[in-house]
Every structure is written in C-alpha cells, then in structure tokens.
Design a protein that fits this description.
The protein is mostly beta strands. Helix content is 0%, strand content 45%.
C-alpha cells in the first residue's frame, strides 16, 4: 500500500494572524439556573419562562462567528427547547450583519444532557460591533437547577 503526501504542507492560507497556527478563539460561556429556575447571577430572581431571552455573555466586535457547541450538563425542565443567537449590545441592528436570535441553532433540546453542535446552514459572519450571546427558551418555564456551557468558535479578523 502506498503512502501519498500532499505537497505544500503547511498550507500558508491556513496561517491567519501572527500565530503560525491561526487565530481561532473558543469563547466559553456558562449558564446555570437555581433550584427555582432563575438564572444564577442574573439581574432577575424570576424563573426563566417560555419565550424569555437570556443574555449570556458578550461576543467581541471583529470576530468571525464560525461554529458553536452547546454542552448541557444538567438539563432544564423537561420539554424545554431553545434557540441560540446574538443581539447587538447597543440595541441597534446592523444592515451589514443583522442580529440573529437563532444564528447557532433553533429547537435545541436543552432539557436533556448532551452535546449539541451547530447544525445550521448559516454562513460565517464578522460582528461589526459587540454583541450579546443569547438563548431564547420555548415550550415551558424552567423550574429546576440546570447547567450548560455554550462554546462559540470565532476568528479574530478585526473591525473594518
């Protein structure tokens, strides 16, 4: 059996930024809820209701959003699903890159422990300004302690 080597390794087009292996960043955001279903460390003590949007953390301007993974360690109340996206921190939409509440997925089963990869067909986008990573729930209100992390993979391209 032959061994074939592709010439031109490493491919210089993969060397982005000052690092020889590129400038991919993984932003990790943790979302926990209390025994009553409220966001731990949130600005409200009310349980997360169906249709509520939780601002989880800030995504920096100039980063190209390319992928995500949601790791549910302890699920929310049974049947709850969610969509994950972003909304601009200043509250003003962008025509170049419109905010998108389901950019990273919709109908995600956050009531069940597991790993959920981004399965959307959305093309990557570069954020022109700082944005909140958002999670919007559906189906039911949360009434229990839960824990999940959302990992967003992005490339720092800077703001044009």
């Amino acid at each position: 059996m032959a061994t074939i080597t592709k010439l031109g390794i490493p491919d210089p087009s993969n060397q982005l930024g000052a690092s020889p292996y590129g400038n991919l960043t993984a932003f990790r955001y943790v979302l926990e809820t209390t025994a009553t279903g409220a966001v731990k460390g949130g600005d409200s003590t009310a349980a997360v209701a169906s249709g509520d949007t939780v601002k989880i953390g800030l995504l920096p301007a100039g980063f190209r959003l390319i992928d995500s993974e949601i790791v549910v360690k302890t699920g929310l109340t049974a049947t709850i699903t969610a969509k994950v996206g972003f909304a601009y921190a200043d509250g003003v939409d962008s025509t170049a890159v419109p905010q998108d509440d389901d950019f990273f997925g919709t109908g995600i089963t956050v009531a069940t422990a597991g790993r959920y990869r981004n399965a959307t067909s959305n093309a990557s986008v570069t954020l022109p300004k700082e944005a909140w990573l958002t999670l919007t729930t559906a189906v039911a209100a949360n009434a229990k302690a839960s824990e999940m992390e959302i990992i967003v993979f992005a490339i720092n391209e800077g703001v044009a």
